[in-house]
Design brief:
The first copy, chain A, is an alpha/beta fold. The first copy, chain A, has a seven-stranded mixed beta sheet, sandwiched between helices. The first copy, chain A, has a four-stranded parallel beta sheet with strand order 8-7-6-9, sandwiched between helices. In chain A, strands 2-3 form a two-stranded antiparallel sheet. In chain A, helix 12 links the parallel strand 10 and strand 11. In chain A, helix 2 packs across helix 11, helix 3 runs antiparallel to helix 5 and helix 4 crosses helix 15. At the A-B interface, helix 3, helix 6, helix 8, helix 15 and helix 17 of A face helix 3, helix 6, helix 8, helix 15 and helix 17 of B.
């Protein structure tokens, strides 16, 4: 019987995250303080983030960053995640390609987001903080932070985009089950929220409003730190656990990927699965591996954005980040893949795109759900709308293999399940999706 | 670092299911035809079930039943499921007990139900059927059958209890994503449904009405067979994969359970995790292992039911089953654990209860959700309302260990996740649950 899934023994779990910056040919440009236009410092950053996260963001000159024991212990609650050979999907596509996916949907919170929520909450706890806060759109990151905070015995407050709070009440419920205090944003609980609601009492919220509220809460509350689920380099660092495991697992299968694919919101899951493989291209031991970021057609920052300094949030509270961006005021269409509705790409990935090490593919919402439905029927997992983009890109690659009559090995990251997104599938099946 | 999760290599997956009947001291009495009062035959049963399922139900004299290769292959899509040491829960309970759970929630459809849906759909396919049908209450079984049918390329029609169809629309969506035709029961699509609706146009449905409709569809449709998700002996047979894996996995942990716990609806998951361990009691190689069925206080067939012949459905279409029952007209309260709202216990478990080999614990709905919420916060999995009953029983056992100052090893079956049941958790957290 052909082997379907590959796991690592717990003793073989990676002990370090991989920091790609030392290996980059051209380093990413520094983040700038928007007022002084000087590079932000660890001191600046640690006013809102934990000190350790700030250090990892700005000072990480080591290639390998040790994973704290306590974080590794919590990783064993769900890691290694399985690497899966998608025999069912391959058969349905009638392709000579070998398709593998890393199944991050098996995490307690249903997505890869927990890989960074655990260390971020842990650092806050270790540094004496009692509270953490963040924003969430689709809800995957908020759920991850809620659970991670609960694990380390600290309180969490999540600002959830109001539209999502109302459309996906069960995401809110999950955060509450994990003990988090969840507020629809914009809210009357912050100055930023009040200002927005004064101008527009019916504002439906955005990641921009929610970030502004969470950052304000962290700034104004002693013992409370802000955390972020993507975009920043330290988040991507934590997510390299995905690629590091996948590298060992695909070796167990006797293979090596020709193409590595991740969906693309802020870049952390894409970087997480790609960078450990990309390091072999950077050090010259592997040639020709392709890295494909699958972004929504309606939010095409990688293919149609411009490279330059831009804010990370709508209100302009964050430092200026050197990145491909559609502009921080860009308002993406209301696609169901809320996690991909972000205007910019993290600094590292942006530099790598500029230098030709990674590429991007635009996926329409219809293609993404068609891919997700086929995947559900053949592999038995209902994928998150975000993950559907990676699946669609993998299907495209597999179709090319069939047309060319070439066997290639495709690896993609299944970031999460879509069990909180069934309303979106309903619309797709009913033909009501555009 | 202490090991948290145990997996089997795919090559070590069980190749046979365990049939407990040959090892039973007193065999279960036969099912009877309600009209002739004679034992039902394979011929009778195979008019609605697949021939192979009918044979397994009535003629299984072998202790070990080979699992077909194709079924084993589909099992590898999610099996072995992890055996998990619940360190987080143990710590929260401050108990000397070692608590393990078998995590069946990682299956593609979110529960253990798939273990039997795969072989049942496979047998139908092999016997030339083109369609399968069934009923579903909570939705776990219907989802499992929808996916299994899709895998083997046959069509499926699921009658979902109308109340559940409307309260849990996302369960319906999942079945539709897997390609199933889902109908709220009672419906106008069958004679049985029409009769019910004529008398009561606002009937909210029950497992009884849905079984009647599905059985009628199977009887009236060439190439269509009926399938069932619990109660029957062949279903429990398929579920022994759970206990057979758990036995190997807990040995990897260097332990053996003192108490084995499963929630109890019709008995298939409870039998599935228990029987492989119970066989060592029956053959005299192990003494003192306890087997606890966790049933809802509001549907106490094991503790307060009577043993005798009763129908499996409300309308009286099924054979008479020798079982502990609250009466086939019993109407359990509308608790959220829809999978446990069944009036009777399967024939084998009923006989074992009668003979003192298994015991039962009654769990209130409040206790079940308190247990489920604690479990979510400590182990990171939001459990199904059904599974919450097993967790509550495990917590009770662990508390006894603490009080007695005794270390015992507790094993329970986590049948499924509760991600489709967040509305129930909402009610619990809001204090609106009775």
């Amino acid at each position: 019987m052909k082997q379907k899934r590959y796991f690592l023994d717990e003793k073989d779990l990676p002990e370090q995250w991989y920091n790609i910056v030392p290996d980059m040919v051209v380093k990413p440009q520094p983040m700038l303080d928007p007022v002084t236009r000087k590079p932000v410092t660890v001191e600046d950053l640690s006013r809102i983030f934990s000190l350790e996260a700030s250090r990892q963001e700005l000072n990480a000159t080591d290639r390998w960053i040790p994973i704290p024991d306590k974080v590794r212990e919590m990783y064993t609650y769900y890691r290694s995640t399985p690497l899966v050979r998608a025999y069912g999907l391959e058969k349905a596509l009638d392709t000579p390609a070998h398709i593998y996916f890393k199944n991050e949907s098996v995490s307690p919170v249903g997505s890869h987001k927990l890989n960074s929520a655990i260390p971020q909450a842990y650092y806050c706890k270790m540094e004496g903080d009692t509270n953490v806060t963040t924003e969430t759109g689709a809800g995957q990151w908020g759920t991850a932070l809620a659970y991670a905070a609960s694990v380390f015995g600290i309180d969490s407050a999540v600002y959830q985009v109001k539209l999502s709070y109302e459309q996906k009440p069960y995401r809110r419920s999950m955060m509450q089950v994990f003990g988090s205090q969840v507020t629809a944003s914009p809210s009357m609980s912050t100055r930023a929220g009040k200002d927005i609601l004064t101008v527009n009492p019916h504002h439906q919220g955005s990641l921009g409003t929610a970030i502004s509220e969470a950052v304000e809460l962290a700034r104004m509350t002693p013992g409370c730190k802000y955390t972020l689920g993507s975009v920043m380099s330290h988040v991507t660092l934590h997510q390299t656990i995905i690629g590091l495991e996948a590298e060992k697992q695909i070796e167990m299968a006797g293979e090596y990927p020709d193409v590595v694919i991740g969906c693309f919101g802020g870049g952390s899951n894409f970087g997480g699965i790609s960078f450990p493989f990309l390091r072999h291209v950077l050090d010259g031991t592997r040639k020709g591996t392709r890295f494909v970021a699958a972004e929504p057609e309606s939010c095409p920052k990688m293919t149609k954005g411009e490279f330059g300094y831009d804010f990370g949030d709508e209100a302009g509270y964050t430092p200026l980040i050197p990145m491909f961006s559609l502009g921080h005021k860009f308002r993406p269409a209301h696609i169901h893949a809320g996690g991909l509705r972000y205007h910019g790409a993290g600094a590292i990935v942006s530099q790598l795109l500029k230098d030709g090490f990674v590429e991007a593919a635009d996926i329409s919402q219809m293609d993404s759900f068609a891919a997700g439905t086929l995947f559900a029927r053949t592999e038995g997992i209902v994928p998150a709308p975000e993950s559907c983009h990676a699946i669609a890109a993998a299907i495209r690659e597999a179709a090319a293999c069939r047309e060319e009559g070439v066997q290639r090995t495709i690896l993609f990251n299944l970031t999460g399940h879509g069990l909180m997104d069934m309303a979106a599938y309903d619309q797709y099946l009913a033909g009501n999706l555009v």
